[in-house]
Specification:
The protein contains 1 helix and 15 strands. It has about 180 residues and is an alpha+beta fold. The protein folds into 3 domains: about 1-30; about 40-105, SH3 Domains (SH3 type barrels, Roll); about 105-179, SH3 type barrels (Roll). The longest helix has 27 residues, at about 5-30.
C-alpha cells in the first residue's frame, strides 16, 4: 500500500470517527420533531388540569398533575401525539399534545436568586423609568414579544409592561420572540 493510499484511508477513518459524530450532535440541536416543530421549544398548558405521565401513553402512570393554566413547559422530545416536557424545576414527564398551546408564556424566576426582593415591571423597556408594578416568584405572564434582553408582557391580560428577559423562565437565553 502506498503512503498516499494509506493517508486517504486514515483521513476517511478520521472523518468517520471524529467529524461524523460531531455533525450528528449539531443536527440533534436543530431537530424537527414529528409535529414539524423544532425540538426543544417552549409551549404552555392549555388547561388548568394536565396529567404528566411517566411515558408516552395513557397506560403510563401519572407522575403529577399541573393545575395552572398557561404554565410554560419546554418540549424536549416527541413521540406520536405525546410530548416529553421539562418544567421550571427540571422535572420531566409526558403530556398529550392536545393539552398544549403555542401561546408563549413565561413564569417569573425567584427574585432572591438575583439578590432582589421582587422584580420591577416597567412601562418602557428601560430600568431608568419608575416601576409600575412589582412581581414576585411564580407569576405566569403572557409574552407579547422579546428583544433578547427585555420582554413586553401582560399579567392576566390587564397589567402590561416590560420585564427583564433574564427574570423569566419559558424562553431560551437571549431569544427574541414576536407574537
Amino acid at each position: 500500500m502506498t503512503s498516499a493510499a494509506f493517508s486517504k484511508i486514515a483521513i476517511g477513518l478520521f472523518l468517520a470517527i471524529v467529524i461524523a459524530p460531531v455533525s450528528s450532535l449539531l443536527a440533534v440541536e436543530r431537530a424537527i420533531g414529528p409535529s414539524g416543530e423544532p425540538v426543544p421549544r417552549f409551549e404552555s398548558l392549555k388547561s388548568d388540569k394536565v396529567n404528566v405521565r411517566r411515558g408516552p401513553g395513557r397506560d403510563h402512570k401519572i407522575l403529577w398533575v399541573f393545575k395552572k393554566l398557561g404554565m410554560p413547559v419546554k418540549i424536549i422530545s416527541e413521540y406520536e401525539d405525546w410530548r416529553e416536557i421539562e418544567d421550571q424545576a427540571g422535572s420531566r414527564g409526558w403530556i398529550f399534545y392536545g393539552l398544549l398551546s403555542r401561546r408563549r408564556t413565561g413564569i417569573t424566576r425567584d427574585p432572591a436568586d438575583m439578590g432582589l426582593k421582587y422584580f420591577s415591571l416597567y412601562e418602557e423597556a428601560s430600568s431608568d423609568d419608575e416601576a409600575i408594578a412589582q412581581l414576585g416568584r411564580g407569576v405566569i405572564v403572557h409574552i407579547v414579544n422579546c428583544t433578547g434582553s427585555w420582554c413586553q408582557i401582560s399579567v392576566n391580560d390587564k397589567l402590561k409592561g416590560y420585564l427583564s428577559q433574564k427574570q423569566l423562565w419559558g424562553l431560551f437565553k437571549n431569544e427574541p420572540t414576536k407574537n
